[in-house]
Amino acid sequence: MQDVLRPGLFAGKSVVVTGGSTGIGLAIAHAFKRFEADVHILSRKPEHLAAAAKHLAGAGLGRVTTHSVDVRQADAVAAATKAIGPVDVLVNAAAGNFPGPFDALSANAWGTVVDIVLNGTANVCRAVRPNLRSGASILNIVAGYAWTGAPGVAHSGAAKAGVLNLTKSLAVEWAPIRVNAVSPGPIEGTEGMKRLADDLGLRPAIEKAVPQRRLGDPDEIAQACLWLASPGASYVTGTCLVVDGGMDAKGPFGDLLTGG
Ligand code: HXC
Description:
- By secondary structure, this protein is of the alpha/beta class.
- It has helices at 23-34, 46-58, 74-84, 107-128, 145-148, 154-173, 191-199, 203-209, 218-229, 254-258, and strands at residues 14-18, 38-43, 65-68, 87-92, 132-141, 178-184, 240-243.
- It has a single domain, classed as NAD(P)-binding Rossmann-like Domain (Rossmann fold, 3-Layer(aba) Sandwich).
- It contains ten helices and seven strands.
- A seven-stranded parallel β-sheet has the order 3-2-1-4-5-6-7, with helices on both faces.
- The radius of gyration is 18 Å and the shape is globular.
- The termini are far apart.
- Hexanoyl-coenzyme A (HXC) binds next to helix 4 and helix 7.
- Hexanoyl-coenzyme A (HXC) is lined by residues 95-98, 100, 104, 106, 108-109, 112-113, 143, 153, 156, 191-192, 196.
């Protein structure tokens, strides 16, 4: 087999990134552009789309096609998908989250996050499905708490667990289309880390909790996505690649034994 991560790897390929105008989604869009893909970004806010397009053009990566779409709106997702045409890679990175104990979440607050994360992912998968080219793959961005539970973000945890489960179901139902997940640890510059590390002043505690003693870079998530979407991962489906600096590997007593 030929080594795969080479210049032009995704030339002529159409890559759709939801939530691709900020944070991890933007880093993923940037990475696929570096490997010459035709990138389509779906995002709710036009101002974020414009800033992302400017950012990528400023990096010398040329144009991206932007679509102002709320993944909760199935009809709008279907219309954008029709305009995009054939798809080789779909990355579901759109997310919505805010911290709060379960008792503080109204039915609408719960439903809003589940709607964005779980139903939104299903909406986009459903719409893109007829347009997937031979050899296509789907990547769903989840979170470590999809397995563990998520006090303080129960709505997001339940939704991400649903996405992880959907990943496996679709990997089987839609084979040979490959469907995988990527589970990021604490990543620099994301909305979640801005709130936890910066607003709540938890950066030193978070860094201490990570075996690698640092937050991850968004590009470290993007690199995992490049590989999973590449022909090098042609037999990899229905799995989740954990990219978290060792957080998941610590297990329940890791902090006690390592001083984390
Ligand atoms: C309690 C809240 C709340 C809060 C909103 N709600 N914020 N409840 N605490 N901080 C409630 C509202 O009161 C309302 O319920 C319901 O949620 C819907 O709120 P809206 O503002 O109308 O929703 P909307 O405009 O659709 O905004 C969606 C959003 C927003 C999720 C609430 O924050 C958003 O758009 N975020 C997008 C970006 C984002 O969140 N990125 C972070 C992803 S990070 P009522 O009952 O009043 O009608 C991630 C991983 C994090 O996913 C990892 C952390 C460890």
